[in-house]
Amino acid sequence: MARGDAECPGVKAPGDSRHRQLRGMWIATVSGIDWPRDPAHSAERKKADYRAMLDRARALGMNAVFVQIRPTADAFYDSPYEPWSQWITGTQGKDPGFDVLKFFVEEAHARDLEFHAWFNPYRVARGTDRSKLHPDNPARKNPSWVRAYGDGLWYDPGIPQVRELTTKVVLDVVNKYDIDAVHFDDYFYPYPVGGKDFPDADTYRKYGGGLRKDEWRRRNVDALVRELHKKIHEAKPHVQFGISPFGVWRNRTSDPNGSATRALQSYDDIYADTRKWVKEGWVDYIAPQLYWEIGNPAADYRTLARWWADQVEGTDVQLTIGQASYRGGGPGAWRDPAELSRHLSVNAGLPRIRGDVYFSAKDLLGDKGGQTSRLRKDHYRTAAIPPAVEGGKAPRPAGSVRAVATGEGVRVSWHLSPSRRAVSYAVYRVEGAGRPCAPVDPTRLLTTVRGASIVDRTAKPGVTYTYYVTALDRLHHESGPARGATVTAAEGR
Question: Can you spell out the DSSP letters for 381-445?
Fold first, then answer.
């Protein structure tokens, strides 16, 4: 048989199923929330801490990380537009001695974790002292672009040059780094502070064009979202664009299309028309932050999960839910370690929900309130592959799978797919001597890996297993399985 021919041509590829899930966590860098632990630490210590986070994420069953690389109009890479981030070394503009973003991406991919590059489009600084900005910071060079509001400095979204800067910054990263997605959170126009309006009256007079101010502000945000989606896909079609907005678009009392909630509204308060972005297809995924418990009187989790599932119906936009690990052990329902687990049980009844992402890494990995242990027990006992994204094509299968018992467990190896589209491989395991050519069961997924071998250290001594391997492209389209390999794990380990 020629290399690259399917060994099991009659066996179909697994396809989609409810077991396909995105499982992610946010790694926040502003103020060192998750990384680095201390900006004074050495580069090697910082690298070790990041690697340890990823190792623990994989052990928990995660398959994606959302890493904040532009927290305050600064960069976690050598940018031609903005200075090195103060959050790496403690000093804005100081070279940390290594390409942080390249390291971030490579280490994530080495563990077959998707890397979503998280940008804050308009936040300039925490604190309002402009003299603390690096002299080369565009916000320092162009003070007319910047507004002091609340306890921070913000770019004015109504200024065209500001939107152009954000677009250039994002596309620079898309073109130079092997990221899987561009990610925005919920900060567009800043959240209302003290009943004061955002100070953009001069900008509105110059650019308002006869629109009401609220309509004009939403148009400004829409323009950035629409153009970035278009330009990201023009640069690299496989790079996704996703946003994690505040969880309430509008309350039903404000709009019949809204949710049965009584909360702040992203449409009215931060000028983010998140429902429109979904309906227009300006995002590839939406990950609303549903940080409320089930039964919350103002914003019930179950109500909002159903509302968002309805919004993506009939679109190609994938829906992932932002979950509040940070609330574990808190008052009320959050004292119960099962609260987040119940959220995922609600999701299981809503097929349009395709996964969850947790804020943030330190709370998820630290098992705050016992929530993570319960998630692992109830929902994450087996690995998962993210849902396939529109536009890809399954690679050709792997081949020549071998399974050998060793003192460490079972070493499984295979020949890589001959297709250049193949990026990673899924390894499935069943007990007993399975048929050489058989469909794979998604509930039997053992792991995924970028490479040609794994060591199964969970194999029980003396037990016989059959291993099957499939190939995946970077958008998670999956080939059929190669011929399975059967082995009995060594006794006496």
Answer: SS--PPPPPTT--PPPP-EEEEEEE-SSSEEEEEEPPS-TT--EEEEEEEES---SS-PPPGGGE
